């Protein structure tokens, strides 16, 4: 009996050591805001949608990483579209970093982790959810929003019904983070509050900051962004 108890304790101790975590946080970038505090690629494509930053298991134990294997073609296509690197890092390096730092803590095989991230991202179109509540990004950046407005637009969406975490740089919305539990269905859960966004006067910028003197092709790209 005693031996059995010790065994049970030992097994649960070992389990808790190997890659356990509490819940998932999905971070989505609003590129024009995110670039206020990050070295965004000068000549890279400009995105006018929320793109994936990463899926981060929270409160993890140490994780063991591995080199990324090649993605199947269709997954690679989706990653390039929805999870591109907007900094100077090439996509492959960005994904490797996200896997090293976060993905490897998920206990999932690489491909499952990347697919889960794409799936959770695909569940809700944040830009559309905000637009329905009149929260839009426009040339001139004239409109300002309160933190409550943005949080509430997302929280009150029937598919989500949980509090997001917002990240701002100098009053510009940079990231929206959504939280999910570990159950197989990955239900939304409340994220912890964050204080990096001011209570009001939040901008959803349209233009990228500190654009250098524009090269013709850069100006072209910028014009190609449809009004939001
Ligand atoms: C989130 O927190 C609120 C209270 O602040 C609670 O009413 C709600 O049920 C929570 N939602 C989830 C999904 O746990």
Overview of the structural elements:
The protein has 228 residues and is α+β, with helices and mostly antiparallel strands. It has a single domain, classed as Ribonuclease Rh, Chain A (Alpha-Beta Complex), CATH 3.90.730. 35% of the residues lie in helices and 13% in strands. It contains eight helices and five strands; from the N terminus they run αβαβαααααβββα. Strands 1, 2, 3, 4 and 5 form a five-stranded antiparallel β-sheet that branches. Helix 3 crosses helix 5. The C terminus is likely disordered. Bound molecules: 2-acetamido-2-deoxy-beta-D-glucopyranose. The site of 2-acetamido-2-deoxy-beta-D-glucopyranose has 6 residues, from strand 5.
Any descriptors?
228 residues, alpha+beta, Ribonuclease Rh, Chain A, 5-stranded antiparallel sheet, 8 helices, 5 strands, 35% helix, globular, binds 2-acetamido-2-deoxy-beta-D-glucopyranose, RNA binding, endonuclease
| Integer average pLDDT | 86
Distance between the termini: 66 Å
- Strand-residue fraction? 5-15%
CATH architecture identity: Alpha-Beta Complex
Bound molecules: 2-acetamido-2-deoxy-beta-D-glucopyranose
Helical content band: 25-40%
* CATH homologous superfamily placement: Ribonuclease T2-like
How does the overall form come out from the CA principal axes? globular
Instruction: Outline the low-pLDDT stretches.
Output: 13-17, 222-228
- How many beta-strand segments? 5
**Helix and strand element order:** HEHEHHHHHEEEH
Structural class: alpha+beta
CATH class: Alpha Beta
The major β-sheet equals: 5 strands, antiparallel
Estimated radius of gyration: 20 Å
């Amino acid at each position: 009996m005693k031996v059995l108890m010790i065994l049970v304790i030992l097994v649960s101790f070992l389990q808790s050591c190997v890659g356990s975590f509490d819940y998932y946080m999905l971070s989505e970038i609003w590129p024009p805001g995110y670039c206020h505090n990050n070295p965004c690629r000068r000549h890279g494509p400009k995105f006018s949608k929320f793109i994936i930053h990463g899926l981060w298991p929270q409160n993890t134990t140490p994780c063991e990483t591995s080199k990324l294997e090649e993605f199947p073609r269709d997954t690679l296509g989706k990653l390039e579209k929805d999870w591109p690197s907007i900094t100077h890092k090439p996509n492959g390096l960005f994904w490797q970093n996200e896997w090293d730092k976060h993905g490897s803590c998920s206990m999932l095989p690489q491909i499952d982790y990347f697919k889960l991230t794409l799936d959770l991202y695909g569940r809700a179109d944040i830009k559309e959810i905000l637009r329905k509540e009149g929260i839009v990004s426009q040339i001139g950046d004239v409109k300002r929003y309160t933190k409550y407005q943005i949080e509430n637009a997302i929280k009150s969406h029937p598919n989500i019904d949980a509090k997001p975490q917002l990240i701002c740089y100098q009053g510009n919305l940079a990231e929206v983070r959504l939280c999910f539990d570990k159950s197989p269905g990955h239900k939304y859960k409340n994220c912890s509050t964050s204080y990096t966004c001011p209570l009001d006067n939040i901008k959803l910028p349209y233009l990228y900051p500190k654009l250098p003197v524009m090269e013709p092709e850069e100006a072209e790209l910028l014009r190609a962004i449809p009004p939001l």
